[in-house]
Amino acid sequence: MHLIDHEPVQLLTPDGVRVAHPEYSYAGDDSDIRLLYRDLVLVRRIDTEATALQRHGELGLWAPLRGQEAAQVGSGRALLPQDFAFPTYREHGVAWCRGVDPIAMLPMFRGSALSGWAPEEYRLAVPSIVIGAQTLHATGYAMGLTLDGQVGHQDPDRDAATIAYFGDGATSQGDVNEAFVWAAVFEAPVVFFCQNNQWAISAPASRQTTVPLAQRAAGFGFPGIRVDGNDVLACQAVTAAALHTARDGGGPTLIEACTYRMGAHTTSDDPTRYRDAEELAAWEAKDPLTRVRTYLEAVGTPPTFFDDLDREAELLGERLREGCKALPEPDLATLFDQVYAGGSPELAEQRRTYEGYRGSFEESAS
């Protein structure tokens, strides 16, 4: 039975102090940490700009990630090029780490396209809207890696794994538990990365489980580990170790990254209706960006580094605003093209009805 340590793995405290852990260590140096900080700052800027674009009517919806940057960047930077990631609708930081242009993250939320990138190019699946379904996709793909002989050679240039992202709310879904069963039985090279951000929309984690979520892995026969999800160093170290185990043929791992969703579930949500300001303030003190900056300042990083990064973030924000407004307006009639590969008479009739309805407004306007 794989019992877990209830205390999450931590390598960088909220006060910006590096600490040792008996099993995990961060392999990079201060220059690497500066690159991680750049990731964190620019990913937060993407999120801030996209939220503002939605408020200005340029996006129909946005799923904020503020507060979860370290979990996504740390795990995303642990992936090798041949690994394949399966995200939810919130993993903008993972998309950034896989090289996706930030503008390509917007079409789905604008309604202009089903996705903004080709999965095979970035080894990143399109965002999953169905809660938990991507865990099955990741497990099936991982089983295929084993069948194709891409696992267990101790060759970092050949062996591959998958990672499935999901939130604490998804652990209550049947798909996730079914994925755990298949992954365990077939020793699939998959890492299940749960971002426990404490709230499944308006349901707190305490209403979903009485034990750490990572402990659930024991019931399926594979390891679970908790990590400080606001510690980018720990997230990278723990995810790198789990992916290494998967690529070597050691089977699945469940990682529970303990973090916090500082913003709303989506831009259609009002979190002030179900959580109090004191809770938010307590987690803001553990901000994943602040702790890294505090560390970098303590080791003598020059102020010009932060000034240059601020300018880069401003330019990124400007490019996002311009790029979003250049995207085509959504055409609701295309919805009928995405139901069946070959269409159907019923859908064709529904489309004609909709287009007639839409056309009536154009006629009245003229």
- Per CATH, the superfamily of the largest domain is Thiamin diphosphate (ThDP)-binding fold, Pyr/PP domains
Main beta-sheet annotation = 5 strands, parallel
What proportion strand? 5-15%
CATH class of the largest domain: Alpha Beta
Low-pLDDT regions: none
Total number of beta strands: 7
Order of helices and strands: HHEHHHHEHEEEHEHEHHHH
Distance between the termini: 72 Å
Structural class computed from helices and strand pairing:
alpha/beta
Amount of helix: 40-55%
Shape: globular
- Rounded mean pLDDT is 95
Number of domains: 2
- Note the total helix count: 13
**How does CATH name the architecture of the largest domain?**
3-Layer(aba) Sandwich
**Radius of gyration over C-alpha positions, nearest whole angstrom:** 21 Å
Give me the side-by-side strand order of the main sheet: 1-2-3-7-6
What is the CATH T-level topology of the largest domain?
A: Rossmann fold
